[in-house]
Specification:
about 150 residues, 2 strands, globular
């Protein structure tokens, strides 16, 4: 690895890790097979650091009406997932304000990170919406959202 690349990686790592689910505040975010099974069955398993704990709590309490879909789970699964999401939810600036409707794509950090994306890009057939992270972030299923792994479909 070149010195420049290593320096760049060192600078970017603290910014990317909380979102990527790799670590938060120096603590590794463990994978959660139940989260992968239940949530990734319908959409990218968004990293817990993408939303503040209060947002995750509201989402988990309203699973029968999860953005227009019944995503109900048994009470034990809800308890387990809620505890994991709460433990690894966003901290710092990202946690200060819940995004409108608890939508990751409406959060200030998401808007800031995607401000250079043309509105028509979100409407491309292979993209469909800002919530379809995996359309552009090639490593999204692995929880990695590094801008160097972005490929915007045509």
């Amino acid at each position: 690895m070149s010195a420049t690349l290593a320096w760049r990686a060192a600078l970017l790592s603290p910014l990317l890790l909380p979102l990527a689910g790799q670590a938060r505040d120096g603590v590794r975010v463990p994978s959660n097979p139940l989260y992968q099974q239940e949530c990734a069955a319908c959409h990218v398993a968004y990293p817990p650091g993408a939303l503040p704990a209060a947002s995750w709590r509201r989402l988990m309490q309203n699973l029968p009406n999860h953005f227009g879909t019944d995503a109900s789970l048994d009470p034990a699964a809800v308890r387990q997932l809620s505890a994991w999401l709460d433990q690894y939810a966003a901290t710092g600036r990202r946690a200060q304000q819940a995004p409108p409707d608890d939508r990751i794509t409406r959060s200030a950090w998401f808007q800031r990170k995607h401000d250079e994306i043309a509105p028509r890009t979100w409407q491309l057939p292979k993209v469909k919406s800002p919530a379809n992270c995996a359309a552009c972030h090639t490593q999204a299923p692995q929880g990695v959202f590094d801008e160097h792994d972005v490929h915007i479909p045509r």
